[in-house]
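Forgive a beginner's question, but would it be possible to get a protein, spelled out as residues, together with the matching structure tokens, please?
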Amino acid sequence: MKKIFIGVVIIAMLLAACENPFFPEKAVKGTPDLVLSPLPLVFDTITNGDPQPDAKTITITNNGTSTASVTSIALYTTGENYFLLGGKLNPIIPAGNDAVFTVQPIDELDAGTYNTIITVTYNKKTVTLNVSITVELQEPVINLLLENFIPTDASEGVFEGIFNTPVILNKSNQIQQINLPAELTGIEWYLENIPLGSGDSVNINPAAINTGVYTLYCFFMMDGNPWLGSISITIE
């Protein structure tokens, strides 16, 4: 009877020490969890005509408990026209580790705001990041110098003259600013027979005008006399 009791005790002690060797607990499967940073990614504002912005680095961090297998890093469809991806785009990232890739706007972007979404796909899951850049319009400026103004005949008490400065506006520039000398006052502007407003400068949008040669008129006061000046403008 004592031998049986001692045997039962020994078996019980073995079971306790082995945490039930006959029915081991099922191992818990880990899961990857990727996080992107910075979030969102906003490039500094540039002006059209500036050099291509440098690429920025995006970090992928695996905060999960198992390895992440990235199968793709891709731009939203429209973003492919405005941004470039670089680096390894299918990294294997163990739990607690990082990987990086880059994104860069393309060169010679027109004025406007460009947005896209980067999608990282891994282990049948996805994570996204918004990317954007704003390109401001560079407004070319033409200053009409007084020494380039050639007086002509007077007509009905109004003196006439021309600004001997060729003005060529490219339609892709969209807006062109033309300034008159500060010595002139009371200025009013007309493009052919269309009034454009008053002031010492005028903005013209070549994109809204058909190509061709036009005359820009300006009424102004100089040395106490009223003048009608004209400027030849070519839209190309």
About this structure: The radius of gyration is 36 Å. Confidence is low (pLDDT under 50) at residues 4-12. The longest helix spans residues 2-18.
